[in-house]
Amino acid sequence: MNPAVEVVPVFEDNYSFVLTLPGQDRAIVVDPGDGEKVWCFLEEKGYGLEAILATHHHFDHVAGIEFLCDKMPVDVYCFKGDLDRVPRAGRGLEDAEEIERGGLRFRTLHVPGHTSGHVVYVCGDALLAGDTLFLGGCGRLFEGSPEQMFHSLYDKILPLPEETRIFAAHEYTVHNRSFCLSIESENAALREQFNESKALCKKNLPTVPGSLKTEKETNTFLRCREPAVVQAVQAKAPDTSDDPVSVFTAVRAMRDGY
Ligand SMILES: [Fe+2]
After folding, report:
1. What values do phi and psi take at 23, rounded to 5?
2. 14: CA distance to ligand 1 center in Å?
3. Choosing a second label site near 135 at 20 to 30 A (CA), which of 26, 162, 171, 181?
């Protein structure tokens, strides 16, 4: 069953996500950076809090957990290795573990790179991507190597169905796609997506969710095996080999300075 996913903007450019079984009122909250804001959203909607899932331990994803748990003590899930750095976490998950809460099934994928304990959650057609996959980008490498992030994206996320809806945890889309265009200026689908995301942001609307199909066509970080991308990257960074990991490493380094 596909979940209803509602987007709660928090802080400057973060998103928390509230998942419910369509027609039901028990909500699973993913990455509550701001507990008060998420709690107000739940109250407004008349949802009860069923459980909290954290993708990783960074403050802007977990700072609201204590507030929510004080309001309603619920299970907090995260990667098993992150139990000591996610507040109130009591349920440590393995890679590829499945849990069921509020009538929804979640599958964990361990995707090290942004942090060593980062997980994403697959629930029906929704991917709660945290800071691993953004629309037009991927997370910075705080605790992982480019090679680790490459395998997280290419081996764990790319094999998901193309219709997967990508719920990224930051509104970085316009800047990300502007960067992608600096490498793939001839990519017409990318230019179209860039313009669409600009129009949404102008109206103060979230660009999420995106689709995995669109990301495969437009997100340069996922296109490091495409000959046109390899050539474009090698033109800018001549030390880059044909190996997709080498291309990915160069793209990540270029984005860090963009
Ligand atoms: Fe993060």
Report:
1. 85, -5
2. 10
3. 26
Q: Say if CB 124 and CB 113 are below 8 A apart.
A: no
Pairing of β 26-30 and β 14-20: antiparallel
Amino acid identity at 2: N
* pLDDT digit string, tens, across residues 138-177: 999 999 999 999 999 999 999 999 999 999 999 999 999 9
Distance CA 107, CA 51 (A): 15
- Candidates 161, 167, 172; CA nearest to 53 is 167
Active-site pick, 57, 110, 118, 170 = 170
175 assigned to active site: no
Architecture of domain 4-256: 4-Layer Sandwich (3.60)
* Residue 56 designated active-site: yes
User: Could you tell me the residue ranges of all domains in the chain?
Assistant: 4-256
Residue whose tokens read 């490493």 = 249
Does residue 114 carry a catalytic annotation?
yes
